[in-house]
Amino acid sequence: MIPNVVVWVSTILSVLVQAQALYFHIGETERKCFIEEIPDETTVAGNYRVELYDPRTKGFMPSNPGIGMHVEVTDPSGQVLMSRVYSDKGKFLFTSHDPGEHVICLYSNSTAWFSGSQLRVHLDIQVGEHAVDYANVAQKEKLTELQLRIRQLLDQVEQIQKEQNYQRYREERFRATSESTNSRVLWWSLLQTIILLSMGFWQMRHLKSFFQAKKLV
């Protein structure tokens, strides 16, 4: 009973922290990719903002409107879910179809607009119910505060179920990998044993033939 409680609590914690805010630097030809483990049928939203390095102030300033970012998302099977060019700041949104590691890549849409300087990209990735704009939902569907809170709780429960299903999927995949590895190790051990026995049998026959040729037997 205790392991189930641990899995449930860890799943709740993983759902509650599905928001990552960070920033990184890229050059004009660089490509930055991030791997997100996402359950199936889960909405992911990313907000980003680009700043351009100013050598005069030796700091990062708001970038020019002409600077844009190319966002590309690849699913676990290698299929491109989204590939689109955005402006210097914006929001991208996609929904996963298969569980597993999704690769989110960002790179500049040009190679000659900032003469080898650096960009600082602020990125905030939100997964699951964190990606939903509930203020917009409440306004569009005319929900009361209580109805909106119930909607949020239902979405959280649904996301927890998706996370648990994904954890089961990972466990099954790990078990299949372990069983496959154990099976290969077993067959390799058997093959080694057969080779050693065959070599021993051949050596015995060779020695017997040698002694018979020398008339020692």
UniProtKB/TrEMBL annotation:
<feature type="domain" description="GOLD">
    <location>
        <begin position="31"/>
        <end position="127"/>
    </location>
</feature>
<keyword id="KW-0732">Signal</keyword>
<dbReference type="GO" id="GO:0016020">
    <property type="term" value="C:membrane"/>
</dbReference>
<comment type="similarity">
    <text>Belongs to the EMP24/GP25L family.</text>
</comment>
<keyword id="KW-1133">Transmembrane helix</keyword>
<dbReference type="InterPro" id="IPR009038">
    <property type="entry name" value="GOLD_dom"/>
</dbReference>
<dbReference type="Pfam" id="PF01105">
    <property type="entry name" value="EMP24_GP25L"/>
</dbReference>
<keyword id="KW-0217">Developmental protein</keyword>
<keyword id="KW-0812">Transmembrane</keyword>
<protein>
    <recommendedName>
        <fullName>GOLD domain-containing protein</fullName>
    </recommendedName>
</protein>
<keyword id="KW-0472">Membrane</keyword>
<dbReference type="InterPro" id="IPR015720">
    <property type="entry name" value="Emp24-like"/>
</dbReference>
